[in-house]
Amino acid sequence: MAESPSVKFLGLLRVLLRHGVDFFVVGGVAAQLEGAPILTLDLDILFDKAPENLSRLLSALHELKARYRDPAGRHIEPDIDKLKTHRMHLLLTELGALDLLGSIGNGLTYQDLAGRTVVYALGQERVHVLELAAVIEMKRFANRDKDRAVLPVLQRTLEMKNKPS
Amino acid sequence: MAQPSPPTPASDEILPDESPDGVDLGLIRWTLSLTPLERLELLQDWVDGLTELRNGRITER
What is the pLDDT of residues A58-86, one digit of tens each? Predict the structure, then answer.
């Protein structure tokens, strides 16, 4: 069996930033950046669906040699039409698994959640990240087993972050 | 990556290591003490280690 590549979080973020993609980090990596110790094996981002941003995103995806994680093993590459119309894009890139989301939770878009992000410095890069309280809301909405499993850790982390020192 | 040591309390206060529902509070305290970049590097270490195990290969660290 072929070895599965390990996702390279910083590498993926650097490519997206270098192409000027408007996005923020959501999901497990957002939780980890906010201080919650949880394991995740892919990078989830919520992207702006403005036409000019889709072009920048597609350019980044070309550099990353992105294709859909297709159970049938077909080689399907993202394009502008798919980015425009589909809500979720589960991709495999040369830097690992990357999930692109056009909306999260109850149909919330990049614009809807832009006011609920924090900016973190990752070396020379500045990355917008969904705040932990919003990550918790999205996990509660999704309500899958894997979301419910991490909620106690996320909730405790939020309480400890908000506790005056 | 060299991993920073967990923080020590400033006073003699004994902080609980675990919440009543089993959450490792000491681990949360530690990750909160890291910078965002260190948190991402920590996650990367976990993922790399898990991938090595999945692929059946354990290398010297």
Answer: 999 999 999 999 999 999 999 999 999 88
**Under an 8 A CB cutoff, do B31 and A37 touch?**
yes
For residue B16, the model assigns a pLDDT of: 79
The minimum CA-CA distance between B10 and chain A, rounded to whole Å, is: 11
**Which residue among A6, A8, A33 sits closest to B39, beta carbon to beta carbon?**
A33
Question: Which residues fall within 8 angstroms of residue A11, CB to CB, at 6 or more apart?
Answer: A95
Contact predicate A77/A94, CB 8 Å: no
Tokens for A64, please give them.
């990353």
Of the candidates A123, A153, A161, the beta carbon closest to that of B32 is on A161
Helix (H, G, I), strand (E, B), or coil: what is residue A102? coil
Q: Which of A5, A150, A26 is nearest to B48 (CA)?
A: A5
- Give the whole-angstrom CA distance, residue A74 versus residue A54: 23
Q: Which residues contact A76 (CB under 8 A, 6 or more apart)?
A: A67, A68, A70
- Tens digit of each residue's pLDDT (9 = 90 or more) over B28-57: 999 999 999 999 999 999 999 988 888 886
pTM of the model: 0.88
